[in-house]
Amino acid sequence: MIITFLDAGVLIAAARGNYDVSAQAMAVLDDPDRLFASSDFVRLEVLPKAVFNRRADEAEFYTAFFSSRHMLAARW
Predict the structure, then answer these.
(1) How far apart are alpha carbons 45 and 65 in whole angstroms?
(2) Contacts made by residues 64-68, CB under 8 angstroms, sequence distance 24+
(3) Is 25 in contact with 59 (CB distance < 8 Å)?
(4) What domain range includes position 7?
(5) CB–CB of 25/6 below 8 Å?
(6) Could you give the CA distance from residue 48 to residue 51 in angstroms, rounded to a whole number?
(7) Domain count, the chain
C-alpha cells in the first residue's frame, strides 16, 4: 500500500476534468493500491471556492474525497 498525500492541484485537476492532466489525476485517485492522506488546509483551499462559485459537482467531489480520506496529516 502506498500512502499518497494529495495537494490541491491534483484534486482540482481531477474535479474539473477539463485539463490535460485530469486523466492522470483520476488515475492516481482510482489506484486501489494507494491510501490517501490530506489535511484540513487542503480542504480549505479547494472546497470554499467551489461552493462560492456554485460549482455543485466540484464541491460534491471534494466533499466525497475528504469524507473517504483514510488519513489526516498532523495538525500544528
Answers:
(1) 14
(2) 65/6, 65/11, 65/29, 65/36, 65/38, 66/38
(3) no
(4) 2-72
(5) no
(6) 5
(7) 1
Q: What is the pTM of this model?
A: 0.84
Q: Quick one: which H or E segment has residue 72?
A: strand 71-72
pLDDT at 19: 74
Q: How far apart are the first and last CA of the chain?
A: 26
Determine the number of helices (DSSP H) and then strands (DSSP E) in the chain. Answer: 4, 3
pLDDT tens readout for residues 18-37: 778 899 999 999 999 998 88
C-alpha cell at 14: 481531477
Amino acid identity of 61? F
Percent helix, strand, coil in the chain, to 5, is 55, 15, 30
